[in-house]
Design goal:
Layout lengths: L1 H9 L6 E10 L4 E10 L2 E6 L10 E3 L4 E4 L1 E6 L8 H9 L3 E6 L2 H19 L5 E6 L18 H8 L4 E7 L2 H5 L3 H11 L5 E3 L6 H9 L4 E2 L5 H9 L3 E5 L5 H9 L6 E4 L5 H6 L3 H10 L4 H7 L2 H6 L16 E6 L2 E9 L2 E5 L2 E2 L40 E8 L8 E12 L2 E4 L5 E6 L7 E6 L8 E4 L8 E5 L2 H13 L3 E6 L2 E7 L11 H17 L7 H7 L8 E4 L2 E4 L4 E2 L3 E5 L4
Parallel strand pairs: 1-4, 1-5, 6-7, 7-8, 8-9, 9-10, 11-12, 12-13
Antiparallel strand pairs: 1-2, 2-3, 5-14, 14-15, 15-16, 16-17, 18-19, 18-30, 19-20, 21-22, 21-24, 23-24, 23-25, 25-26, 27-28, 28-29
Helix pairs in contact: 4-6
């Protein structure tokens, strides 16, 4: 094959594939020049003007379109799409993504090594290049939630020995690292001693605590929320991975002006299916950044050569002789909607059609029966307070999760609620708040309950086993009967999503693979999710990012206050706080 590349350049044999007349975006010298590209096998052999001695088995006229490398997403989670890896592959290849670095901590939280090995096998022979990381922080906050697996140094050693593992997945217990907690540091050390890539998640760290995080060898962060954090992390040698939700004009300005440009990446992290299908994948993140003022060539660097170098994929990320032939042709350098995508020298998408089809993988039977919980009853969704000696007419001081209907960061606020009565027992009157109940799905009879404000019009219920990390059964609603109906439907189908109103189930979406993934085709699943989101609107649920809201409210590392199966959690201070703080005599 090496000989054939040289012979094709010299005109002694044909190129396998010759792309003529493209505007090549060169990520090595930040130039754009009209040229031709010759491919032999899966590699680029020649970049230059076709000479009379050159021939090709197949030619394509680029018609002056921009040519730049296939996109590389250096931090993402396949499970966030709810698609099987095969269906995800077919979807994002058409959007110009040819390589992803996937941290399967969602499925590993539920199924442990079985889930990790299944994801390795499911991604092994896809046309999409998938680098699988070893999940590092399961549960995401040990002691504050329960999952189906726990990672210590022994488990990490076993994961890193699996063929195909690309490094250590994001270390989410950032406070544990900064506090010097032995278990999480032992996990990091087991990877560091192998020379593995170490991915991080340091959303609330700054100053000396961020330095402690960096000092253990973790050198990336995808939770960079403002220009100050971006510059602080770049100064410490982090690779900063900016996701769509972090983009702003101020952030983009800081990215444009950063004195060092090779440690900035754009990533997707989590992309719910409606956003993936309606807006795009990494191409959407880049196009949005460009619309906010990012230099388009910088955007191309941040999604190609920079992530390639971050992941030590030294033959990816650029269009030059000897590099793997991952190329996309795009009409508009400011809005990336590829008309042609080439992956590993093969045309996988052209003229609006996929030219390949990813082979489906049969998941193990154990992953289709992953719920182990007792069916709840209506009283599980009530907040009884007899332990305080409360009586009907008293007033309760409570901690509330405040959300603004726009972003996913929450705040702790206080409120005073009346105590009423149900079946002879004192219970909070919660009619002005949305209740949230989190049921352990791994065999423990425990559940946490919380109240959320800002959802005054919501008059139904939603139950879901796809959340983040632990994926316990989470139920939202105001009426306990609606909440029970939605929960029962999800349990009956061994995982999924359901809405309910007036005591009846509305939309139900089974997620049979670990309660996380559907085997439906992307368009069919999108139709089901669209109906579900429409039913939420009809029930008065209002949030700019509804799917993200439902999935992040039980995430134990998402600031500032969340609810897990163990109770109401102050994330920043790593401590549980009571839902009911005090009871006062309402007659006084």
């Amino acid at each position: 094959m090496l000989l054939n590349r040289v012979r094709a350049i010299n005109g002694d044999c044909p190129f396998d594939f010759l792309i003529r007349n493209v505007k090549l975006v060169n990520v090595y010298n930040n130039t754009i020049n009209t040229t031709d590209i010759g491919i032999v096998g899966d590699r680029i052999a020649y970049v230059g003007t076709k000479r009379p001695c050159h021939s090709a088995l197949r030619e394509m006229n680029g018609e002056g379109r921009f040519a730049f490398p296939g996109l590389i997403d250096s931090h993402m989670h396949l499970e966030s799409s709810m698609l099987t890896p095969a269906h995800f592959s077919d979807t994002v290849l058409a959007m110009g993504t040819t390589t992803v670095v996937a941290d399967p901590h969602e499925i590993a939280n539920v199924m442990g090594m079985t889930g990790l090995e299944a994801m390795l096998n499911a991604t092994k022979n896809l046309p999409l290049r998938v680098i699988v990381m070893a999940p590092s922080t399961i549960p995401s906050l040990p002691g504050f939630e329960d999952s189906g697996f726990a990672v210590g140094p022994e488990q990490m050693d076993k994961m890193l020995e699996l063929p195909g593992i690309g490094g250590l997945g994001e270390v989410m217990d950032f406070n544990g690292v900064a506090d010097g907690e032995e278990n999480i540091l032992a996990v990091v050390e087991s990877a560091a001693k192998r020379g593995a890539i170490l991915d991080g998640h340091a959303s609330a760290l700054t100053g000396e605590r961020l330095q402690a995080f960096r000092a253990v060898g973790i050198d990336s962060d995808h939770t960079v929320s403002n220009p100050q954090k971006l510059n602080e992390e770049l100064a410490m040698g982090f690779t900063v991975q900016v996701q769509e939700s972090m983009l702003s004009e101020e952030m983009v300005k800081a990215m444009n002006e950063a004195p060092v440009q090779n440690r900035i990446c754009l990533v997707t992290d989590d992309v719910p299916l409606p956003r993936l299908m309606n807006e795009g994948h990494l191409n959407y993140v880049a196009s949005k950044a460009i619309s906010l003022g990012l230099d388009p060539i910088k955007a191309i660097r941040y999604t190609t050569i920079n992530p390639a170098e971050r992941m030590r994929l030294y033959d990816l990320g650029g269009i030059a002789p000897g590099m793997i032939a991952d190329i996309q042709l795009v009409d508009d350098i400011r809005e990336w909607k590829p008309s042609t995508v080439i992956c590993g020298g093969k045309c996988v998408y052209d003229e609006g059609k996929l030219k390949i089809s990813s082979k489906s993988y049969e998941f193990p039977a154990a992953m289709r029966d992953s719920l182990n919980l007792k069916k709840p009853v209506c009283d599980d969704f009530e907040i009884f307070c007899q332990c305080f000696g409360a009586k009907c007419g008293d007033m309760a001081q409570v901690n509330i999760i405040h959300q603004n209907g726009v972003n996913l960061r929450t705040e702790r606020v206080k409120a005073t609620l009346p105590v009423t009565e149900k079946n002879g027992r004192p219970v909070l009157d919660t009619k002005n708040y949305c209740k949230m109940a989190v049921f352990n799905r791994y065999g423990k009879t425990q559940h946490g309950i919380a109240l959320i404000d800002g959802l005054d019009k919501f008059n139904g219920a939603v139950a879901i086993t796809y959340g983040h990390d632990c994926h316990n059964l989470v139920v939202f609603g105001k009426d306990s009967k609606d909440m029970l109906a939605a929960a029962e439907k999800v349990i009956e189908s061994k995982g999924g999503i359901a809405s309910a109103a007036n005591g009846e189930v509305g939309v139900h979406i089974p997620l049979p693979i670990a309660g996380l993934l559907s085997e439906e085709k992307p368009d069919d699943l999108l139709g089901m999710l669209t109906k579900f989101l429409d039913s939420c609107k009809a029930m008065g649920f209002e949030h700019e990012r509804p799917m993200s809201f439902f999935t992040v409210m039980s995430l134990a590392v998402s600031p500032e206050i969340k609810c897990t199966d163990k109770g109401l959690l102050d994330v920043l201070n790593k401590r549980f706080i009571p839902l009911v703080e005090n009871i006062t005599d309402g007659s006084l």
